[in-house]
Amino acid sequence: MLKKLCFLGLLALHFQASAQDEFLDAVPNEVIVKFKNSHNQFTVLGKVASQAQVISKKSWPELNLHHFSTKPGDNLQDVISRLKNDPSVEFAEPNYYVRASNAGSFSQSSANMRVTQAWTKLSTAQSIEDLPIVAVIDSGLDLNHSVYKNTDRVYVNSREIPGNLIDDDGNGFVDDVSGWNFVNETSNVMDTTGHGTHVSGIVLGSTEDIVRFDSLRSPRIQILPLKFLNSNGVGKTSDAIEAINYAITVGVKVINNSWGGPSYSSTLHSVFNLAYSRGITIVAAAGNEASNNDVKPVYPASLDVPSLISVAASTDQDSYASFSNYGIDKVHVFAPGVGIYSTIPSNSYGLSTGTSMSAPFVSGLAALIHAEAPNLSGYQVKQIIMNTGDARTWFSSYVESGKRINFDKAIIEAKTLASEPSYQPNYSPSYSQGSRSMASSQDVAGGMGCGRVTALYQDAGDSMINKNSETKFSFLFLFLPFLMLIYRKLRTLHLNQRRHDRLNVDYKGHLITDAGYIYPVSIKDLSTGGAGVQISDFDPSIKIEKATLVILNFVLSPHKSQRFKGEVKRSTKNGFVGLEFEKN
């Protein structure tokens, strides 16, 4: 009996520790929430914000997802519990950190993947506009490297004019000519660790020779660098969502994810489900802890999205790489991941090891398949890659397919199936909070996850660039001149029929009432004394009474806003609201 009581006590302590572990590797005071449906979600958002005492940071309305911050000192676990109890909430979770998965013939690896043989079977190079795009969601890219600079190997947003500080294409990102930096919210995607540059080189090197590089040769694919890992190789779930959503909007064919962590995220699951619905092939590194992902999952590699390919690392001699994660249910194929040669910053090349290096081989192959058979879905591309690999007896104990990828056989199969119609099975994700019971506090404190394998480098000194500080921006100083210019222009206008002349404008924003309700609005006119706004998607049942105290949030860009306190002076039946600003 005493043994049973001791066991139950230890079990209780285990679950208590597991619950606490969930918040150890997350951004402090931040939570991500998904609502069950989109109907009046901004109204519900205001209610949730008021009741749970959270502040809205970012929204993805098309996914019903919202990013909140809590008050400093609030117990994040209690806030999430309250949110989960709200009937309008599908799930609520911390904003988890994730980490990079560091760790003549075909020049990048001597493994017998028959890469160059596959190249001889590829169709004539396509026009730049039709090339498959691979989003490398990572630490950025050294755009000054000779392989990437002015070579058409990097995606260029032709609708954006470089350097004019204007959002020419209206997508909410200023000067996003070649990707975006979600860490610092700028167009500068320069790689500060070398990880993303190395990964990108493997993706590109799977489609052409980047060691004996010929810039005059037409590219077969393009890279879209999306930076969300900081100089320490750590990224936020919220930034990963932004990057993935951006990639989907651009229309990429493949998303490479050489990063991960032990925390299941319903939010990541949701955005990858959107990618699946768009026919995108999703590739993820299995991780570098030599552990079984079927028992101790790593995410996003362990998500059950049907077009997701989880990749383990093999050696050039087709043996299992001792550091690699595995799992016959959750890991799908092998690709080389030991001593892989690829581009690194400062116009150099170097070696690196890890499942981070295995995943981009699969991404490069997937892109070539999409080029040969553009009608196929990401799910169909995954089946081709898994079915055409080279089987090894010992591989069947580690991955679902029991195979290491083979480029030549995969391209032959893709050309055979090129006329097949697009198909993918129906998929309804189950957003269940994953267990963190295997992720101990020691794992988190030790910086584990997917980043344990040490990289080896050539021609780059003793390491890749690794800065321990991040650029900080003060938006106040950025916007003060702009706001002062508006203020001066408004003060120069004098019309008899108003105390303050009003300037016709067309801004987007939010109207936040003193009760905590948030309404998306279009700002129609503006003066030093007030503004006129139109509630978007107006519901006639909504009535904002006169004398209601509000905050008007001007959205100058997705990452720049300004707020003014005011009072409702006019409220019409069609959702137009007239505001008077506080004199101060």
Lay out the secondary structure.
Blueprint: H1 2-21, E1 26-35, H2 41-52, E2 54-60, E3 65-70, H3 76-84, E4 89-100, H4 115-119, E5 133-138, E6 180-181, H5 195-205, E7 222-227, E8 234-236, H6 237-250, E9 254-257, E10 259-260, H7 266-277, E11 281-285, E12 308-314, E13 333-336, E14 340-344, E15 348-352, H8 355-372, H9 378-387, E16 390-391, E17 403-404, H10 407-416, H11 441-445, H12 475-491, E18 503-513, E19 518-526, E20 530-535, E21 549-557, E22 560-571, E23 576-581
Parallel strand pairs: 5-7, 5-9, 6-7, 9-11, 11-12, 12-13
Antiparallel strand pairs: 1-3, 1-4, 2-3, 4-8, 4-10, 14-15, 16-17, 18-19, 18-21, 19-20, 20-23, 21-22, 22-23
Largest sheet: 7 strands, parallel
| Spans where pLDDT lies below 50 across 5 or more residues | 1-22, 435-500
Mean pLDDT: 79
What's the oligomerization state? single chain
Shape: globular
**Termini separation:** 71 Å
CA gyration radius, whole angstroms: 26 Å
Strand content: 15-25%
Write out the strand line-up for the largest beta sheet, numbering strands in chain order.
6-7-5-9-11-12-13
